[in-house]
């Protein structure tokens, strides 16, 4: 397992180009399996999760070619013959569960292992299954696998209405995939409005789907008989953008420009960010950032889009260890997503968890030591803390990070960071 060795205390200067979004790309990839022809997706980052999903699709017989240098992915689903997603791959990544909707939508049958992904407490898939049932699929559990199929003699789902409670990105994606082809009308209420879902709807529409209410919480899908393969540009990663914005605020001398961003996809995040005292100027797809001399404490509560994203709360709590005063970071979406807290405390942060809230008292100096990543966003927050700490730190198990950040150390080093990737697991055994 690789680790990072980080020399802390240096500001970030210059430009960093934001990669394509992981969480927006994965639904597109699954949707490409519904087409009658080949789909080309551009701005697809060479991340472990993307490579894993490529392999998940290949198991079915789909032809998948990824050119990492040009970040271009082609998916040809013509020869799909094996509508299954095995445990060995699905356990690595929760979004593999999108295969359930895609394969059901394509051929009326899917057998998909129950998912893995970042683990921070319960992450049920009941809404995915209940929604598919409500739209007429037969669902059964079989030795850790979910089998979804059309009822005997039916030649499509029956459609209907289903209200997600709570709203769910993954369930909205799966229900869209399951229903865009066919003859029925399906209405998803309290659907997710995250940019990743909106992009998926636009992509499906370009393929020939009929979806009303895109960008609202009620999606009305009228099934169509076929979908065609298209060429499509994936959106920039809003979570990578937010992560680097937060990082740029952590050192008083940092001045950073992020290019290839989609500022509108950040929702209200920029408002919270400004309250810290950081300066932000948006110019087309570039975001210019200047760190505050003194970071103001800003409490946040995670909410569905456009509220504060749960995927940025660990990074925010890390920033708040350097703010002058007390702040609270509350996660209402994943109440247990605080595994990074003991590690920040080991670096010297004054941070404690009360129920679903991290209570942070700043400003505390951080000093370098060995720290362990536990999930994707937790691990990037530890890298950020190590970059802010005095002396040298080691961040172990960076494989979590490689799931979702493309060439992180290379990008940050180009802006002045001092991060070395060390291969192997001898020290961690
Ligand atoms: C690959 C991907 O895009 N992952 C993102 C996606 O995850 P994911 O799609 O898994 O997250 P959801 O939007 O589904 O989860 C939202 C809430 O709904 C609950 N829920 C969800 C499904 C279900 O069947 N039952 C249920 O109760 C969850 O426990 C959670 O409390 O959105 C999350 C919330 O923005 C992000 O943190 C993840 O990074
Ligand atoms: C948690 C994430 O991914 P997943 O839902 O695949 O675990 C994430 O992208 O932050």
Automatic annotation (TrEMBL):
It comes from Cyclonatronum proteinivorum. This is UDP-N-acetylglucosamine 1-carboxyvinyltransferase. Its EC number is 2.5.1.7. Signal peptide: none annotated. It catalyses: phosphoenolpyruvate + UDP-N-acetyl-alpha-D-glucosamine = UDP-N-acetyl-3-O-(1-carboxyvinyl)-alpha-D-glucosamine + phosphate. Pathway: Cell wall biogenesis; peptidoglycan biosynthesis. The modification 2-(S-cysteinyl)pyruvic acid O-phosphothioketal is found at residue 118. The gene is murA. The active site is at 118 (proton donor). GO terms for biological process: cell division; cell wall organization; peptidoglycan biosynthetic process; regulation of cell shape; UDP-N-acetylgalactosamine biosynthetic process. Keywords: Cell cycle, Cell division, Cell shape, Cell wall biogenesis/degradation, Cytoplasm, Peptidoglycan synthesis, Pyruvate, Transferase. It is an enzyme of class 2 (transferase). The lineage of its organism: Bacteria, Pseudomonadati, Balneolota, Balneolia, Balneolales. It holds the Pfam family EPSP_synthase. The keyword Cytoplasm applies. GO terms for molecular function: UDP-N-acetylglucosamine 1-carboxyvinyltransferase activity. The keyword ATP-binding does not apply. Cell wall formation. Adds enolpyruvyl to UDP-N-acetylglucosamine. GO terms for cellular component: cytoplasm. Residues 7-412 form the Enolpyruvate transferase domain. UDP-N-acetyl-alpha-D-glucosamine binds at residues 94, 123-127, 311, 333. PANTHER family: UDP-N-ACETYLGLUCOSAMINE 1-CARBOXYVINYLTRANSFERASE. InterPro entries: Enolpyruvate_Tfrase_dom, Enolpyruvate_Tfrase_sf, MurA_subfamily, RNA3'P_cycl/enolpyr_Trfase_a/b, UDP_GlcNAc_COvinyl_MurA. Belongs to the EPSP synthase family. MurA subfamily. It is found in: Cytoplasm. Phosphoenolpyruvate binds at residues 22-23.
